[in-house]
């Protein structure tokens, strides 16, 4: 440092800085330089402003820093002149250090002279705006709402008072202690955007450990005006966010290139969001529809315009549905808003869906990620990976010093190795995350192009009930209601239509009947009648007639074969009668309508004579019948009557059954009508803009 | 390019109307209002055919001395009306079409938002920024237009 200071300074006096001073000055310089040159996402400060290749501190933050030293303006002018900045036109490292030393001199009452530089001086004191996280933590009850809106200046004043005390401590204590306490902090602070928020985080977290870490709090970072009030708030809110969510601190906060700390989702927050997602939608890889999400987020009691804006931010592909990363982003924004943090103009990079998916893969994917990392990393880091995975769920307050100590510089691996003995497990956490995120960054460009494709994706995922536009465009009808007929079938099956229709209406009447496999059923009624008749037949000689026109299908199946058997006797009777033609003629008048039975009779007629011994009952009537055609006629008429009566009875039964069925179906129809009306009403309500 | 952009609901009340504030806004609001008649005329004229066949872009509704008014209607009878400065002579038809398409896409995005109830005023910031981008082009391009088309070819 000294050599650099001496060498870099062209015409200035050789500058001797103690180690503490060196550290402090380099930090401050880095901050000024970084604050000037770094915007969001910038890495190590590369403020090569006026002089390419040289690191300079821009005038703005430097001026603020100087003003913060509370020296009168003319003193500051003197200092600026003396240090050579005015001469060379910029604040190089040398000039900056000289200036700081002169400030220290002035603050301790020494005249502003070059000679003062040679003295042993305390560190310059700057009234920095300290995070009011301290005050916040002092009053946990005031975490939300109004406290947050406190203007920047007021908090500055608060912190200033604290600063005074701490400064005195600082000056009293050896210069080394507070500044040197985190040995790795200088490299850390080189990342200004991070340090800005992160140091606040650290200081806020350190508040939790008042005793040992009190001394660190005076290590206030000069808040460059670059971040401004909005910048001050996010860390505050971040702190409150952390507070509200868990005790666990964010171990990976310092690892990213993104300065927007409050927009990072911690592991625990992530788990919480994922659980909420699962409660709404069991499948983590699927979407939450718009209406479901709307109901859910409305519970957060934010105003509708704000919720609408949050949705706009988080639904990256504008499809009216939220995937898991989109949902996490939305939830995080809502939480941030609830804690008072103003909503950003655009979706922060850490909340982009691609980033969220990359940084927080699903648990199984996480394992694979770490497996791949373990392959790439040296073997001695593998146990760290495993430790990392084990420690993921641990709420470890002891992680605090790790962020404080940890590094974001490129040589972090070496540093980790050196600290392996000190803090193996904690560093495992850090290092793996460190390596995880840079890889995530590299993934991001690859996945960023997906955003375009997402936008270009046809809006086929719109499930929102209010997205009329989508429905119109697709020209879809509302999804048809679930098929009702199933119920009717199920109901009908309770009626057992099979049973209903078998014994029911003769084929002439009902079209409901499954067309019987042609003809066999037809003779059933005759067969039934024959059965009934047969009982009488045994007593009486059997008339050869049958009444096939009254179709009784009750005994359809069982009697199919028997019907044929019955046909045979009839046929047998027919040929056995006097005239072959006469029975046909007799048959014809009786069985005019169903010609099929006649056909049927004729068909088996040929083989019929061969099957003359079907059964004894058949044989009985056959033999009995042969004798007397005229008595057969009389008996035919009586049998006819009985057959007719039975047929009538059966028809009535069938009627009753059908009437019942009809009434039930009517009822179902009414219900369906009502449902339809209800749905149409709903449709009317939900869609005020109707299509013409 | 637009001097005034308006989104009119089916019931002919405005969902969103914005004009370049440099001039008298009332004049633009009135122009949009009167253009609705022309829109209805065009719709009914084309409406003999099936809705599907009807084109969404209505084209030039009517020209005045200083301004031209273009119209576009969606399938749900939401109308977009755009008032363009007549001095932008080089404004081609397909550019107007592309602007309407952008409007339509942004409107669709707004509709996707479940917190937006159809019929409400459009308060989406993304929509606002899109319209601003369309309107800002007028301010930046107007001098170029007068200078010639080549400047923004």
TrEMBL record, chain A:
Keywords: Calcium, Coiled coil, Metal-binding, Phosphoprotein, Repeat
Any Gene Ontology biological process: endocytosis
Keyword Phosphoprotein: yes
Domain of life: Eukaryota
An example molecular function term from Gene Ontology annotations: calcium ion binding
Gene3D superfamilies, sorted: EF-hand
Pro residues bias: start-end ranges: 513-524
Basic and acidic residues compositional bias, start-end: 409-424, 432-442
PANTHER family given in the database record: EH DOMAIN, RALBP1-ASSOCIATED EPS DOMAIN-CONTAINING PROTEIN 2
Name the UniProt record assigns to this protein: RalBP1-associated Eps domain-containing protein 2 isoform X2
Species whose genome carries this gene: Zalophus californianus
Lineage of origin: Eukaryota, Metazoa, Chordata, Craniata, Vertebrata
Automatic annotation (TrEMBL), chain B:
GO CC aspect terms: endoplasmic reticulum; Golgi apparatus; perinuclear region of cytoplasm
Superkingdom field: Eukaryota
Keyword Transport: yes
Compartments, as annotated in UniProt: Cytoplasm, Perinuclear region; Endoplasmic reticulum; Golgi apparatus
A Pfam family recorded for this sequence: Sedlin_N
Keywords tagged on the record: Cytoplasm, Endoplasmic reticulum, ER-Golgi transport, Golgi apparatus, Transport
Gene3D superfamilies: 3.30.450.70
GO biological process: endoplasmic reticulum to Golgi vesicle-mediated transport
Main location: cytoplasm
Similarity annotation: Belongs to the TRAPP small subunits family. Sedlin subfamily.
Protein name, as recorded: Trafficking protein particle complex subunit 2-like protein
Source species: Zalophus californianus
Gene name linked to the record: TRAPPC2L
């Amino acid at each position: 440092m000294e050599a650099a200071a001496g060498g870099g300074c062209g015409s200035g006096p050789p500058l001797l800085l103690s180690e503490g001073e060196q550290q402090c000055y380099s930090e401050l310089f880095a901050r000024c330089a970084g604050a000037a040159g770094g915007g969001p996402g910038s890495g190590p400060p590369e403020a090569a402003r006026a002089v390419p290749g040289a690191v300079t501190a821009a005038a703005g933050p430097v001026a603020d820093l100087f003003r913060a030293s509370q020296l009168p303006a003319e003193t500051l002018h003197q200092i600026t002149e003396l240090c050579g900045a005015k001469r060379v036109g910029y604040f190089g490292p040398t000039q900056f250090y000289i200036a700081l030393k002169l400030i220290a001199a002035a603050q301790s009452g020494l005249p502003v002279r070059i000679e003062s530089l040679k003295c042993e001086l305390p560190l310059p004191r700057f009234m920095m705006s300290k995070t009011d996280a301290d005050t916040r933590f002092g009053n946990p009850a005031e975490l939300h709402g109004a406290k947050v809106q406190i203007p920047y200046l007021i908090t500055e004043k608060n912190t200033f008072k604290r600063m005074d005390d701490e400064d005195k401590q600082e000056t009293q204590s050896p210069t080394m202690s507070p500044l040197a306490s985190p040995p790795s902090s200088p490299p850390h602070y080189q990342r200004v955007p991070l340090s800005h928020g992160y140091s606040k985080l650290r200081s806020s977290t350190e508040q939790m450990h008042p005793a040992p870490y009190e001394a660190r709090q005076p290590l206030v970072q000069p808040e460059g005006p670059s971040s401004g009030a909005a910048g001050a708030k996010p860390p505050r809110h971040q702190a409150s966010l952390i507070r509200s969510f868990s005790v666990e601190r964010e171990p990976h906060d310092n690892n990213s290139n993104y300065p927007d700390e409050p927009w990072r989702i911690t592991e625990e927050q992530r788990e919480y969001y994922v659980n909420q997602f699962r409660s709404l939608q069991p499948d983590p890889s699927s979407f939450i529809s718009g209406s479901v999400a709307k109901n859910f987020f409305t519970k957060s009691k934010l105003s509708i315009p704000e919720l609408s804006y949050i949705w706009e931010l988080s639904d990256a592909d504008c499809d009216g549905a939220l995937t898991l990363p989109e949902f996490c982003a939305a939830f995080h924004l809502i939480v941030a808003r609830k804690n008072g943090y103003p909503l950003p103009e655009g979706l922060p990079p850490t909340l982009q869906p691609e980033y969220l998916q990359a940084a927080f893969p699903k648990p199984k994917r996480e394992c694979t990620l770490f497996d791949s990392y373990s392959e790439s990393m040296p073997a001695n880091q593998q146990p760290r990976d495993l430790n990392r995975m084990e420690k993921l769920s641990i709420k470890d307050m002891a992680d605090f010093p790790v962020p404080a100590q940890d590094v974001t510089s490129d040589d972090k691996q070496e540093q980790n190795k050196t600290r392996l003995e000190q803090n193996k497990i904690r560093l495992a956490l850090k290092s793996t995350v460190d390596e995880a995120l840079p890889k995530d960054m590299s993934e991001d460009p690859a996945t960023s192009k997906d955003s375009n494709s997402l936008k270009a994706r046809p809006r086929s995922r719109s499930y929102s009930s209010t997205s009329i536009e989508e429905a119109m465009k697709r020209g879809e009808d509302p999804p048809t209601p679930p098929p009702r007929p199933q119920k009717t079938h199920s109901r009908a099956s309770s009626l057992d239509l099979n049973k209903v229709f078998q014994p029911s209406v003769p084929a002439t009447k009902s079209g409901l009947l499954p067309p019987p496999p042609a003809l066999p059923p037809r003779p059933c009624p005759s067969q039934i009648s024959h059965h009934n008749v047969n009982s009488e037949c045994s007593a009486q000689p059997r008339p050869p007639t049958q009444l096939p026109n009254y179709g009784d299908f009750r005994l359809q199946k069982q009697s199919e074969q028997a019907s044929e058997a019955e046909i045979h006797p009839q046929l047998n009777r027919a040929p056995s009668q006097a005239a072959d033609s006469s029975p046909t003629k007799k048959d014809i008048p009786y069985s005019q309508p169903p010609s099929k039975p006649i056909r049927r009779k004729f068909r088996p007629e040929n083989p019929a004579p061969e099957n003359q011994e079907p059964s004894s009952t058949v044989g009985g009537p056959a033999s009995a019948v042969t004798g007397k055609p005229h008595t057969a006629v009389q008996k035919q008429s009586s049998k006819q009557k009985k057959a007719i009566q039975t047929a009538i009875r059966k028809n009535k039964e069938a009627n009753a059954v059908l009437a019942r069925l009809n009434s039930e179906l009517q009822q179902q129809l009414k219900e369906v009508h009502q449902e339809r009306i209800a749905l149409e009403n709903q449709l009317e309500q939900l869609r005020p803009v109707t299509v013409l | 390019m637009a001097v005034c952009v308006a989104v009119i609901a089916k019931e002919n009340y405005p969902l969103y109307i914005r004009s370049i504030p440099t001039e008298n806004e009332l004049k633009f609001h009135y122009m949009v209002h009167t253009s609705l008649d022309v829109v209805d005329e065009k719709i009914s004229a084309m409406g003999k055919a099936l809705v599907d066949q009807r084109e969404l872009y209505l084209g030039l509704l009517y020209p005045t001395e200083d301004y031209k008014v273009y119209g576009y209607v969606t399938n749900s009878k939401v109308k977009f009306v755009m008032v363009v400065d007549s001095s932008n002579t080089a404004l081609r038809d397909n550019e107007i079409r592309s602007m309407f398409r952008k409007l339509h896409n942004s409107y669709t995005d707004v509709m996707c938002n479940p917190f937006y109830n159809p019929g409400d005023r459009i308060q989406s910031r993304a929509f606002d920024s899109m319209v601003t981008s369309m309107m800002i082009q007028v301010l930046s391009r107007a001098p170029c237009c007068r200078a010639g088309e080549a400047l923004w070819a």
